[in-house]
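does this look right to u?? 3-methyl-2-oxobutanoic acid version
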Amino acid sequence: MSKDKVEIFDTTLRDGEQVPGCKLDSASKLQIAERLDILGVDIIEAGFPISSPGDFQAVVNISEIVKNARVCGLTRAIEKDIDVAAKALQKAKRPRIHTGIGTSDSHIKYKFNTTQDKVLERAFYAVKHAKSYVEDVEFYAEDAGRTDNEFLARVCEAVIKAGATVLNIPDTTGYCLPEQYGAKIKYLIDNVKGIEKAIISCHCHNDLGLATANSIAGVINGARQIECTINGVGERAGNTSLEEVVMVLRQHSHLNLDTDINATLLNDTSRMVSESMAMPVQPNKAIVGANAFAHSSGIHQDGVIKKRETYEIIDPADVGVDQSSIILTARSGRAALAYRAKNLGFELEKKQLDKVYVEFLKVADVKKEVNDDDLPKIIEASNI
Ligand code: KIV
Ligand code: ZN
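got this back:
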């Protein structure tokens, strides 16, 4: 049975780049955009054109070079923003304008000091105006995660009437639980007239560490686009991590959902973004962290050496990692020691291994990690 496609909307260059200290120069932006295109993302959010001349130019440059993905520019629900975004996207083969406004009570009262009806009107006219430039218009209801579902449904209905092709339902503050976010998507599917004319998009922030879980709950309940960033970079605790949602869908094939991402490029892309942004990836980060396929306890190492699948659900090659690594520490056992010694050309018999293991533990107790340079010396010191 063919799988339903989930579109990947990458916002590394817009929401991701909002992180303090992660500003990218224009050459790096172009390099990342080219890589995202090769990776197979469906939409690249290239920037927020009205925010600065640099961002405007980045959207222009990216529009010129991207071959396959749609190129998208962010705006507020303000005519001038939309005019500027349309201009920046002029050279894009498949341009998308992403416009929107806050819809939660807190945004309406404190940010805009206005009423629900006025927000609804602004949303409608913003989409109409964007439609005068491009066919593909995505609408975001900022803080949808904390927006009353009934009002959110009214806004969605209005912007679909205005011609929105995609409805972005951001959990801007990362507040929702997966079941709440999933129920919100289902509510919209069940209650918005004309919903079949638009794709629902998940845009989840990670303030409670739930961005990936919420995005997956969204697509299980009928959304068909996920907005995410490489390494999960983004405001505060970050956005949904692209590599995580892609691999969740690959691992759980019973969901019958998949993306067009070439996962074997994930590890390399993660490094590229991390280096360009000078933003290290935490070692225990799922999929792309340095320890994601590293095993250091004796019990796990013994299992992985016998059969990789005992402690790994993903084949590292599937995400572009050469191989699992067996790290030698004081917690390692004989199986790991023999395995690493063999890789260096030392075939140890049982008695030899016992002797080398005694020497190994002496070193391992003082060093955090025993490496390939240490091993020959340990073997020599064992007098075997
Ligand atoms: O988190 C958010 O609500 C956003 C919107 C501007 C799409 O990034
Ligand atoms: Zn966001």
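The mean pLDDT is 97. idk if thats expected tbh
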